[in-house]
């Protein structure tokens, strides 16, 4: 005779240790959990709304400069340390955790045009209007010591920018020409020119470290290989490029901040068409910096706002502005990709969250799971109109808003004119040129 | 006696028609006859008029709509009350008053005397006295012609019965439609007649003149013979004008105008116009175009802005049977005047209101003549058509104008010979069917419409045909009444030998008609209907052939049924298996429980397409939900199914196990706070297999991450 009795396997309900969570048996039968899509939709909607509720990106304003902030630099080893140069020749070093200035140096007469840190983080270089390149120790002078640069190089012309090699003791300056210096020498290893206009900025490629790019006021972007004596190639755009920034995750990609309100992402192997045109600014873009993840970049503009663009999108995902922030001259994305700093005309350095609604501080695992889930839901339902509308909604200052409207009209007019021209001319005589191609005047090798 | 009277009246009718239609064909014999009969009628009319002067004594008989045997000669009808006048009743009050002794005496005397009974005995009525009467009686009885109820002969009744229900229905519908149309046209005509604007009328006239000219031109090109005929008619009109003094400002109206003319510019102009008109009419016709214009003018003057239907009525009225016409419509008197031109010079009581319309009347006469001729012509051609089988009609479809004109010429010739007989035939066919079927064929008042190929029949024509039928129907009972009215006239026995002769003809024709009636079924109205049906059928056939394979309609119906089913609210089963009883595999909750927890769905609102059999209105589209739905396929997706699948897969932990939930929700890029992310190196991507010390960015690509890497990652995160 068989006796039927209830039997359970303790493995399915007994936890291994006391610290384990209680096992909750769940039945995943879909009929017991109906309306999955509507429920998730509601969750997504709520998540989107909460995102907007919690979107408070502004963290801190670092004040202390007595003139507009002209340049910023990150410390390669310490996340909390930031260096900034002002238009009065003053350099300040900030501690972000304390949000305080920890050191200030009167580095130059006139503007501090450029500042960069050495890859090891022990010293930094500044260039100024007084035609000098100075190297400073990162740590402050010990008690009784005077504040002096480690080295000072007197140049013949004004230097407008400086960047340090990512691995070697080599740095590059730009002005009349691009000079590549050895730290130990007082004269450049090599100087390269292409054209006669002054060069506004020079940037080393963080991955292919021998490559560097510069942009000149004759509207071109020139690429160099440090190992060669001559420039590689250049691309001429419609208007002047203020600065470029290399993508730290993709060796060939760089983005140029242009005077025509747009940013152009180029693949250096195919310069004839930009990979993407990023347009949302309503005034000249002055600076650009990549997130260390290489997925986004931030741009500072003369229109008193900074914008965050995904690399593969032509429209920005975020715009930051405050009433008090004036023309933003320089912007940096911190190395942990969590924060953005921007220095502006009105002498302040502002600290922003890179992700506006992100919760700061340590998250419990459940919190993390929830945020991840919410993030995923938002992504999943991002095309649904209500969610899209809510997530896209941003407040803008009136000036920017009206300028956007104005430019939309202008753009539409241009488009219409082009269409009309095509319509009313002999078929085939007027070729339609894509927007991307239009912006590139020429590529020279 | 009454029957003989009826016969006589019939004869008189026929005779009169002939007189109107064909004065030249029986020049001598009929002229005497005409004079007599006309005199009779005039006399009667005079009597009528006189009697009608005294309002109280007016006969009620004139309005009687049914024929009956009880008709007295003195128009005392015993019918209305339904009682017989008993003499004793009359006597009773007399007894009381002594002053009426004389009367009493008289009455007694009357009582004692034996008098002629009123109404007469049947035998006496039916006794034929004269040989002619005898003959008529013979014929009538032989033919079973109904004497008392002149509506239908047995034959006709039979033919009526022979009509199928559908046919009758169809016919009725047609008639109804025709009636509606008629009333509409009448209303319109009345409205248009009311318009006072002279300019409007002038324009209208001009337009009509132009139209007529154009049509005449066309006619001249297409059918010279017909055009010539038109010219002849014009010539005749000219002659008439020369004979009459219509437009010479001698009428009453003209005289009154002449008085006014001194002061009134308009009156002067009107007179001048009339004179001009006279001149115009008197002018000898030189060019065809001119004449056409004139003709048009004449026509206009006749019926300046009367719609087709009304015209038609008048036209018909004057042709076979003036009596029919007289009873028909509101403007009967006018028509009557037109009908017998001889009566124009009749008592003032009738004539007075029309004195102003003298001009038009003449023009109308001209017009009417034209119409008569044309009608006879048409009838001729129709007869020819009848002779041909229906199939040949179909074949004739391609026949050109030439054939038609030939036919017309032929018919014209024939017309001359057999004109009168046809007229008689027409008038004598009182049967509903026969008349309806005889009448039809493009009886338009438009003079040139004949030029159209017969086959080109439109729905409008069909309607008009139906209308005609309707008129006939209306008129038929009246005929009898007229006949009886005629009876009142005692001296109606004139021109007997003539009538006898004609009677034969008439009866022959009637025989012919009655025998033919079944074969005539396929004539005008029905054929047109059939043709139309044919066209429809053709089209349907074509469509059927085109969609031979698929039964679209059934598919659609099925689809609709399914949609309706799907949209019905469903019942909700709230039964929890195992709740309150044993549950498990193979066990089902009890029926009672199921019944208890089954929530019946409430009846939803009625579907919007409930009454639209060939429409499916999709009620699934929820306008409130639309705002939440994606309208366009988003970029990376190439097919909507892809997108839908991504949406439909749930990612929450409610639907997924912990592991898969984590996998599903892992962000693409994970960054750790407080870790510096260095630019990528060749080693990171796997070019060189050097271990990575500071992996702070995890690209979510589990395949690429080796186990070692994962371990490292773990280690780092623990740190």
From TrEMBL, chain A:
GO BP term, pick one: proteasome-mediated ubiquitin-dependent protein catabolic process
Record key words, sorted: Initiation factor, Nucleus, Protein biosynthesis, Repeat, Ribonucleoprotein, Ribosome biogenesis, rRNA processing, Ubl conjugation pathway, WD repeat
CDD domains recorded: WD40 (cd00200)
Pathway of action: Protein modification; protein ubiquitination
InterPro entries linked: Sof1 (IPR007287), TIF_beta_prop-like (IPR013979), WD40/YVTN_repeat-like_dom_sf (IPR015943), WD40_repeat_CS (IPR019775), WD40_repeat_dom_sf (IPR036322), WD40_rpt (IPR001680), WD_repeat_DCAF13/WDSOF1 (IPR051733)
Keyword Ribonucleoprotein found: yes
Major location category of this protein: nucleus
A Pfam family this chain is assigned to: eIF2A
Residue intervals passing through the bilayer: none
Cellular component per GO, a single term: small-subunit processome
Spans of repeat WD: 62-104, 278-319, 321-362
Boundaries of every Translation initiation factor beta propellor-like domain copy: 199-307
Keyword Ion transport carried by entry: no
Protein location: Nucleus, Nucleolus
Sequence ranges assigned to domain Sof1-like protein in this UniProt record: 354-440
GO MF: nuclear estrogen receptor binding; translation initiation factor activity; ubiquitin-like ligase-substrate adaptor activity
Task of the protein: Part of the small subunit (SSU) processome, first precursor of the small eukaryotic ribosomal subunit. During the assembly of the SSU processome in the nucleolus, many ribosome biogenesis factors, an RNA chaperone and ribosomal proteins associate with the nascent pre-rRNA and work in concert to generate RNA folding, modifications, rearrangements and cleavage as well as targeted degradation of pre-ribosomal RNA by the RNA exosome. Participates in the 18S rRNA processing in growing oocytes, being essential for oocyte nonsurrounded nucleolus (NSN) to surrounded nucleolus (SN) transition.
UniProt record similarity statement: Belongs to the WD repeat DCAF13/WDSOF1 family.
Name under which the protein is recorded: DDB1- and CUL4-associated factor 13
From TrEMBL, chain B:
Protein's UniProt keywords contain Nucleus: yes
Compositionally biased residues, Acidic residues: 291-303
Compositional bias of kind Basic residues: 701-719
Bias (Low complexity): 1-13
Biased composition (Basic and acidic residues): 414-425
One Gene Ontology biological process: rRNA processing
Localization per Swiss-Prot or TrEMBL: Nucleus, Nucleolus
UniProt biased composition (Polar residues): 688-699
GO cellular component: small-subunit processome
UniProt key word Signal: no
Keywords from the named record: Nucleus, Phosphoprotein
Broad class of where this protein is predominantly found: nucleus
Region of interest called Disordered, as start-end residue ranges on this chain: 1-46, 285-364, 378-454, 481-503, 687-719
Protein family (similarity comment): Belongs to the UTP14 family.
PANTHER family assigned to the protein according to its UniProt record, in alphabetical order: U3 SMALL NUCLEOLAR RNA-ASSOCIATED PROTEIN 14 (PTHR14150), U3 SMALL NUCLEOLAR RNA-ASSOCIATED PROTEIN 14 HOMOLOG A (PTHR14150:SF12)
Protein name as annotated: UTP14A small subunit processome component
Organism of this sequence: Monodon monoceros (Narwhal)
């Amino acid at each position: 005779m068989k006796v039927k009795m209830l039997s359970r396997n303790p493995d399915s309900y007994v936890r291994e240790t006391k610290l384990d969570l209680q096992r909750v048996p769940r039945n995943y039968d879909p009929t017991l959990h109906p309306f999955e899509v509507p429920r998730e939709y509601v969750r997504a909607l709520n998540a989107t709304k909460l995102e907007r509720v919690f979107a408070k990106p502004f963290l801190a304003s670092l004040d202390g400069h007595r003139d507009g902030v002209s340049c910023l630099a990150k410390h390669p080893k310490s996340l909390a340390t930031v260096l900034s140069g002002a238009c009065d020749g003053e350099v300040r070093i900030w501690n972000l955790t304390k949000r305080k200035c920890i050191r200030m140096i009167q580095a130059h007469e006139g503007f501090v045009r450029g500042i960069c840190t050495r890859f090891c983080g022990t010293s930094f270089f500044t260039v100024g209007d007084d035609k000098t390149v100075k190297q400073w120790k990162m740590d402050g002078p010990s008690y009784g010591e005077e504040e002096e640069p480690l080295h000072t190089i007197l140049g013949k012309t004004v230097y407008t920018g400086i960047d340090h090699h990512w691995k070697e003791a080599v740095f590059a300056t730009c002005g009349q020409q691009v000079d590549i210096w050895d730290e130990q020498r007082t004269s450049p290893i090599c100087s390269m020119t292409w054209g006669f206009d002054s060069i506004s900025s020079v940037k080393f490629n963080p991955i292919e470290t021998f490559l560097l790019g510069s942009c000149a006021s004759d509207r071109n972007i020139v690429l160099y290989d440090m190992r060669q004596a001559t420039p590689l190639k250049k691309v001429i755009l419609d208007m002047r490029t203020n600065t470029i920034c290399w993508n730290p995750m993709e060796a060939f990609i760089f983005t140029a901040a242009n005077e025509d309100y747009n940013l152009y992402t180029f693949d250096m192997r195919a310069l004839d068409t930009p990979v993407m045109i990023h347009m949302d600014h309503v005034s000249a873009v002055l600076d650009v910096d990549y997130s260390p993840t290489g997925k986004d970049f931030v741009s500072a503009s003369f229109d008193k706002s900074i914008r965050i663009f995904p690399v593969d999108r032509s429209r920005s995902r975020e715009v930051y502005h405050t009433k008090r922030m004036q023309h933003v001259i320089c912007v940096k994305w911190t190395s942990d990709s969590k924060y953005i700093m921007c220095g502006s005309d009105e002498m302040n350095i502002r600290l922003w969250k890179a992700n506006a609604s992100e919760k700061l501080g340590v998250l419990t695992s459940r919190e993390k799971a929830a945020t991840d889930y919410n993030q995923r839901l938002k992504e999943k339902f991002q095309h649904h109109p209500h969610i899209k509308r809510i997530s896209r909604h941003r407040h803008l200052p009136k000036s920017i808003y009206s300028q956007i409207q104005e430019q939309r009209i202008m753009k539409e007019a241009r488009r219409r004119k082009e269409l009309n021209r095509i319509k009313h001319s002999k078929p085939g005589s007027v070729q339609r040129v894509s927007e991307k191609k239009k912006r590139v005047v020429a590529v020279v090798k | 006696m009454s029957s003989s009277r009826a016969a006589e009246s019939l004869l008189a009718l026929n005779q009169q028609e002939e007189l109107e239609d064909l004065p030249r064909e029986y020049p001598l014999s009929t002229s005497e006859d005409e004079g007599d009969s006309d005199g009779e009628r005039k006399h009667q009319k005079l009597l009528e008029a006189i009697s009608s002067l005294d309002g109280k004594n007016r006969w009620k008989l004139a309005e009687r709509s049914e024929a009956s045997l009880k008709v007295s000669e003195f128009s005392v009808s015993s019918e209305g009350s339904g009682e017989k006048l008993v003499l004793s009743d009359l006597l009773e009050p007399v007894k009381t008053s002594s002053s009426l002794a004389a009367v009493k005496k008289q009455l007694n005397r009357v009582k004692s005397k034996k008098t002629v009974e009123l109404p007469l005995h049947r035998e006496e009525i039916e006794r034929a006295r004269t040989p002619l009467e005898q003959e008529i009686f013979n014929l009538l009885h032989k033919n079973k012609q109904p004497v008392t109820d002149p509506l239908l002969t047995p034959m006709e009744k039979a033919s009526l019965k022979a009509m199928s229900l559908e046919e009758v229905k169809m016919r009725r519908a047609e008639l109804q439609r025709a009636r509606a149309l008629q009333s509409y046209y009448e209303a319109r005509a009345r409205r248009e007649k009311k318009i006072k604007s002279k300019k409007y009328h002038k324009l209208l006239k001009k337009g009509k003149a132009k139209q007529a000219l154009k049509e005449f031109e066309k006619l001249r090109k297409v059918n010279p013979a017909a055009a010539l005929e038109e010219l002849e008619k014009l010539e005749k009109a000219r002659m008439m004008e020369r004979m009459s003094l219509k437009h010479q400002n001698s009428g009453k109206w003209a005289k009154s105008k002449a008085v006014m003319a001194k002061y009134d510019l308009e009156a002067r102009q009107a007179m001048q116009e009339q004179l001009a008109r006279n001149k115009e009419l008197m002018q000898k016709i030189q060019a065809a175009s001119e004449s056409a214009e004139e003709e048009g003018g004449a026509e206009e003057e006749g019926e300046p802005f009367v719609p087709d239907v009304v015209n038609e009525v008048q036209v018909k009225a004057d042709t076979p049977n003036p009596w029919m016409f007289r009873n028909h419509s509101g403007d009967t008197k006018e028509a009557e005047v037109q009908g017998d031109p001889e009566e124009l010079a009749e008592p003032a009581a009738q004539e007075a209101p029309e004195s102003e319309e003298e001009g038009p009347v003449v023009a109308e006469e001209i017009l009417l003549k034209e119409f008569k001729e044309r009608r006879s012509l048409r009838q001729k051609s129709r007869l020819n058509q009848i002779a041909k089988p229906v199939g040949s009609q179909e074949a004739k479809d391609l026949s050109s104008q030439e054939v038609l004109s030939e036919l017309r010429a032929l018919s014209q010739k024939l017309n001359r010979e057999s004109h009168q007989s046809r007229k008689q035939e027409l008038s004598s066919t009182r049967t509903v069917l026969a008349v309806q079927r005889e009448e039809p064929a493009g009886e338009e008042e438009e003079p040139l419409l004949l030029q159209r190929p017969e086959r080109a029949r439109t729905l409008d024509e069909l309607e008009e045909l139906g209308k005609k039928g309707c008129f006939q129907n209306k008129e038929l009972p009246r005929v009898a009444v007229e006949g009886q009215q005629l009876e009142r006239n005692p001296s109606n026995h004139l021109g007997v030998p003539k009538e006898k002769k004609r009677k034969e003809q008439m009866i022959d024709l009637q025989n012919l008609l009655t025998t033919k009636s079944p074969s005539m079924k396929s004539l005008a109205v029905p054929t047109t209907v059939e043709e139309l049906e044919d066209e429809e059928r053709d089209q349907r056939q074509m469509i059927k052939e085109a969609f031979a394979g698929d039964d679209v309609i059934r598919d659609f119906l099925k689809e609709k049924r399914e949609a309706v089913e799907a949209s019905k609210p469903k019942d909700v089963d709230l039964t929890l298996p195992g709740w309150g009883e044993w549950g498990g595999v193979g066990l089902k909750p009890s029926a009672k429980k199921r019944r208890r927890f089954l929530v019946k769905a409430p009846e939803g609102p009625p579907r919007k397409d409930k009454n639209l059999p060939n429409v499916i209105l999709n009620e699934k589209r929820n306008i409130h939900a639309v705002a939440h739905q994606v309208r366009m396929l988003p970029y990376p997706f190439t097919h909507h199914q892809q997108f839908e699948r991504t949406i439909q897969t749930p990612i929450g932990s409610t639907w997924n196990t912990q592991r898969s939930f984590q996998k599903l929700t892992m962000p693409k890029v994970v960054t750790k706070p407080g870790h510096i992310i260095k630019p990528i190196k060749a080693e990171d991507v796997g070019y060189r297999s050097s271990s990575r010390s500071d992996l702070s960015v995890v690209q979510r690509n589990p395949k690429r991450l080796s186990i070692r890497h994962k371990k490292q990652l773990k280690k780092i995160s623990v740190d």
